[in-house]
Amino acid sequence: MGTFFRRIAYFVCVVSMLVAAFLPLTNTAYAEESQNKDFIRWVDNKVPYEILRSAYEYDVKYHGSETVDFDFVKALAYLAVKNGNKFQIKRDIKALSDLVLSLQKGKQIDDYFGSNKYYKYYVEAYTAIFAQFIGDYVVEETGEVGYGLKNYHPFPKGYWFNHADDFGNARNYGFKRKHLGHDMYGSIGTPICAVEGGTITELGWNRYGGWRIGIRSFDTKRSYYYAHLRKNKPYIEDLKKGDTVQAGQVIGYLGVTGYSYKENNNMSCPPHLHIGMQLIFDECQYQGPKEIWIDMYGITKFLSHNRAEVHKQEKDYHAENLRKTVNSEWNR
């Protein structure tokens, strides 16, 4: 018997050595392949809410215009190149106004920096962030059609919240790191709405985020992270990994869970939602050290202009009169 077990141990040892030797080669090969690809590897989102709101108002005003070709994303990219990504609210709102005047005279936004590599970078970066934020929509319950914000604030109408720009602040539970999300304070049990539609990729307990949900957008360019959900009942009934949700849909409830190996444990801090947005230009950025997380403070202020109406039905809250993208395969 002793000989038999020694042979088994020897076999396991050999297999382990082969796997250990092979994995670095495959990982290195993948890393080299990824390194040679041409894709954006970092985005520093510094656009203030006031600039987002001003550009949005111009976009809505001139939507469908035959004389003024205003584009929300290109306008932001124009400003970022013009100001070196150092935004100043008063100055840049004036720059937007001047840009519109030139567009009214027949100019195009691309005429200014169209061949500039930084302009191209910002167009791609802001497209990755805002691709599904603005567009034509229909409200199925009422038949209303319109053009404007399609994505939703995570807090529904009628529920209080408070927040400040805390992206990049120090965190030390487990290890020292930067805060790669945005904390929004509210009352335990507040319904939490999906900012954007997508597929649930993560659902369950995490020692840092507590009860959390990960949702990847249908175009796969963004992944949203909702963490510290409520103890005992963090999610709406029957929600599971692999489900699809739409923008504005209630997905769970605000809480204060996390910072524990033990499931269903509350932290010693005020109740809040940790929300994060990750950008994905290549699959190697989806999970691991190459992840790109952006500051959502200005974005959540921007989304406060579109908050879902929710009402309780039996065990859970449900959103009503949601804006759905017109003629889209992503209307699930």
Helix proportion range: 25-40%
CATH architectural label of the largest domain = Distorted Sandwich
Q: Profile the largest sheet.
A: 8 strands, antiparallel
- For the record, the CATH class of the largest domain is Mainly Beta
Q: Which stretches of 5+ consecutive residues score pLDDT under 50?
A: 8-33
Could you tell me the number of beta strands? 17
Beta content: 15-25%
Q: What best-fitting shape do the alpha-carbon axes yield?
A: globular
Write the CATH fold name of the largest domain. Glucose Permease (Domain IIA)
Considering the chains and any ligands shown, give keywords for the structure.
332 residues, alpha+beta, Glucose Permease (Domain IIA), 8-stranded antiparallel sheet, 3-stranded antiparallel sheet, 7 helices, 17 strands, 23% strand
